[in-house]
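# step 3/5: fold
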Amino acid sequence: MITTHVDELLDLLQRPSVADSALIAKAYSFAEKAHAGHKRSSGEPYFFHLFETAKTLAELGMGAITISAGLLHDSIEDVDVKSEVIEREFGKEIRFLVEGVTKLGKLHYGGSERYTESLRKLFVAMSKDVRVLIIKLADRLHNMKTIGDLPKEKRDRIALETLEIYAPLAYRLGIRKINRELEDLAFPYVNPEEYDRVKKLLKTKSHEKVRHLEKFHKSVKRELAREGIIHTHSSYRLKGLYSLYRKLLRKEWDIEKIYDISALRIIVPTISDCYRVLGVIHSVWRPLPGRIKDYIAFPKPNSYRGIHTTIFTGDGGIIEMQIRTEEMHRKTEYGMHFEYKETITNPKPNFGSVAWVKSFFPSFILGNKEIKAEQKKPDSVVPPWIREIGEYHKEVTGTQEFIGDIKTDFFSNRVFVFTPKGDVIDLPADSSSIDFAYAVHSDIGNHMSGAKVNGKLVSIDTPLQNGDIVEIVTKTGSHPTAKWLEITKTAIAKKHIKMMLGQNSLH
């Protein structure tokens, strides 16, 4: 018999207020009573799923409102609790979140149309309040952990959807913990043969790698202690199966070409300590050329920060090292919303703390002036790329076009390039300077006449590479041509090009 208790949730919160504790306890009791006698396919009480969803939200550092909405997220759809009752008992904000999650499950189309409609609803919901997506991710995580009890057809459909949509969304939000779990849970159902192949390959290496890591770990701790560096935590890990699978595909299934199967993670108190650790490591062990990545100075667009280096251990081994502060580690595991705060006294959706905004947009991307401006906007807690998805669904009606553009724009491999001022632009792989120009501003794209990459003039169809510095040359009389549509990758660029071509045809 599965047993749960509200104290398990409250213990995960950092010093919850009396009001927050009371709200969660009330939602817990309400959901438990509403779902009394309700069973899952496995035969276990349905409330256990709600509890696990809320527990994940608490582990992610979400507030009392979101946790409570997680407990209540199936009340409207599954046990016919009226929205008005949710609002009367818990307020407008929780009703908004619960309805947002509920709408994602109300599908009225079959086949590919059903799939497309579910995506549209997801994107619209999360463009209004990103917490709807976070609750959905927590819900999907527990569903994937218990997916084995479902019929094969339904199980395989849910697993594929998880791998293609939900796992990438978790990654783009910076919630690596959920991203990794969703990938590895879905992988054996989506591609069982490749899963078994990867599992066998890793098994041949895992024992050897773990022994090597344990030995090297002790050596690193000894060298750091010798230099007076008191780190807060160090650990090692083996690469997840799905992540390893993707790398094996790029390396023609040669596992010997993959250097980050195993990784040693050093977590220290301050940023200066990160660089001190890097200095010690490189003074003792030789780094692998081209494998040093400073994501502290240049964070990834999903806010990831840390230093990566790959070193020769001296005994024939190669190990990747990751160096972070404690704060960086928490945000890596739990995402951009780590500092997202909520209040039960504010019934309006889309409000969050400035800290949340700052944590999602690195300072070199969003300057102080921009941050102050964003503070005034109620939708500032929704990342721009999410708002873009929510708007884009209105422009495209065709199923195949919609699915194709979504996968290209938001779930494909990405390249990260820079403006001359050092701002990061996140684009799909193989994007051109045209895509870059429209990503910066539509006016720049509409009047683009040429492009410089790393200071050199290039053809506008030249694919951009990670780390490129791109400068767009504009002229008043320059306009897009129909050929641009064959070059561009992003939907936003195609949209503005088509608009300009349509306007020019009228003159």
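# step 4/5: annotate
Residues 6-189 form a domain with the Hypothetical protein af1432 fold (CATH 1.10.3210.10).
# step 5/5: archive (pending)
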